[in-house]
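User: Continuing from earlier, I have the next pair ready.

Assistant: Great, send them over.

User: Here they are, in order.

Assistant: Folding the first of the pair now:
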Amino acid sequence: MPTVELDLKQLVRAVHQLNAPEFKQFLQELSDLSRLQWARDRDEKALRAAVNARLPARKQRRLKALLDKGNAGTLTRDEDEELKALIDEVEQGTLEKAEAMDELLQRGVDLRPETVLERCNQR
């Protein structure tokens, strides 16, 4: 399908030329496009949140304490289970972060820190 480039005024003039059924179809397609774009934006925000997710500070402190005890050889059986659960949580978070980064990169989103900062400063 050939592409036609219109500025906003030209687009509005073209829409004014539509008959009633065409206008109704145009509005439906515009609504569908709007919902799709909103879903993409929401999805991208969720992916960015996954990329930036971190273990809560309380859990980070507990993980460090348990690792220190493990290195000292003084972990109890319950603490060992707790440590394994925390390590599983960290590994799952790392996997989710990597998958989110991969998805964003496949979409062509630039994740370099300096680029992210530039976008924040433009808003």
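And the other member of the pair:
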Amino acid sequence: MKILIVNTYDIVGGAARAAYRLHHALLDQDVDSQMLVIGKQSDDQTVTRLSSNFGRVKNRLRNYQLRFFNKIENYPNKTKTFFSTSFLSFSNIVDKINEIKPDIVHLHWICNEMIKIEDLVKIKAPIVWSLHDMWAFTGGCHYDEECGRYQESCGKCKVLGSTKEKDLSKNIFVRKQNTFSQMNTMTIVGLSQWLSTCAKNSTLLKNKKHICLPNPIDTSVFKPFGKKNSRELWSLPQDKKLVLFGAMEATSDPRKGFIEVVDALKKLRSENIEFVVFGSSKPKNTPNLGFKIHYLGSLADDVSLVTLYSAVDAMLVPSLQENLSNAIMESLACATPVVAFDVGGNRDMIDHKKNGYLAKPFESLDLANGIDWVLDNKNYEDLSQNARKKVVEDFDNKVVSKQYIKLYEEVLNG
């Protein structure tokens, strides 16, 4: 069985890290797996970077063409939520996919003009598509900001700030509709129960085969590390209760909930607290929360993440929309309880008041209550043990990879 995992990047970004982990989990099970990307940062020989013949001048021309065709500039009220058109593709990726001749093509996050929507029908092998966000079934937004129009036909896009029925989102929606109607051997993997339900209820994907399977994680790597030693490595205080918040562009992406974090931290009852942020450098206008904030910037390797999760007392994930958060899974694997809003796929990993706390959506006071509850919990050690146990039992590499192998076999058997 030959599996080709396709993602825009190999190790940059949450979707890339998840796809890369699945790739190696399959290799560990002696599956012939290969990963194809257009942006390669690792030196992994099992990852193939699609070569490009485009030089600097041609790439600049490509960017001008993208701006012209995307017409994003026509929407001055667009929100900060990521929006992708996949109108152009300057790569020969489909030719490369078919040249490799895999038994199954496992798509993951394929935006940033990696592949033109219409070119998906040219892939000869059966397709399994893991949804890392909502893009596959929307008119271009990666998260719909709860507008729900993907259940109809998009248009009047909330993310674009559009009031017109026939806007860019409608155009992209129709393109996907025409393309997906020709793809009869495509299986949709919702990584969380929430996203799986959204996909099933969407106009674009409701007639496809659906299954809910999570991302895997290597619990022999993501495991508890001594708190004292971890704090020494990060030069963090030993006598403080530390709360961690992290995401790519953690303080600048509204969906990540930094505004809600700031409001919640002002309402904490617990004392002797310091706040730790990774995934973001110190902003120009730092909020005054009455206690110290440590900004650690971006982290690229698993060892850094493991020691950081192990150094803190609680992880805070206040995203307003979230699929299956790598940060939550990683933190729990390192035996650090997580506080998050009860949205998206968070309840797939967090068992309320067993290994963390699920706050009422968007209520900063309840988010503060959750932080206080974890930090002051008399049974904190039980919370930590439950956190680790949850991940080992439900998300470990060996457990999840076998579920994917079973899916591949079902696809191949028709």
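Worth noting for the second one:
The chain has a mean pLDDT of 90. The chain is about 35% helix and 15% strand.
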